[in-house]
Amino acid sequence: MQFTNEVNWSVMDFVMAGMLLFGTSLAIEFVLRKVKSTKYRILISGIILLLLFLLWAELAVGIFGSPIAGN
């Protein structure tokens, strides 16, 4: 990688990161268009972002030890 050799992402890692970010943005956009209440918009968008961060952490370092992380 550019700054350190401790991080070694393959092309598929970048593709997966892009898919996660794109899917999250589509889900939040859908919520913003369909949900009328500001309170529920913020709540649902926050839940979507929390799920993104948990999935990203699981794929990156396997914090839960699930099969999707390669453990």
Descriptive notes:
It comes from Flavobacterium chungnamense. The chain crosses the membrane at residues 14-32, 44-65. This is DUF2788 domain-containing protein. Keywords: Membrane, Transmembrane, Transmembrane helix. The structure is a single chain. With 71 residues, this protein is mainly α. The protein has one domain (11-69). 68% of the residues lie in helices and 0% in strands. The chain is built from two helices and no strands. It has helices at residues 11-34, 38-61. Helix 1 packs antiparallel against helix 2. The radius of gyration is 15 Å and the shape is elongated.
List the topology elements:
Elements: H1 11-34, H2 38-61
What labels would you give this structure?
single chain, transmembrane, membrane, 71 residues, DUF2788 domain-containing protein, mainly alpha, 2 helices, transmembrane helix
* Helix content estimate: 55-70%
Strand count, sense and barrel status of the largest sheet are: none
Calculate Rg over CA atoms: 15 Å
Low-confidence stretches: none
Q: Please tell me the total number of domains.
A: 1
- Rough shape? elongated
Query: How many helices does DSSP assign?
Result: 2
Quick recap:
Helix content is 68%, strand content 0%.
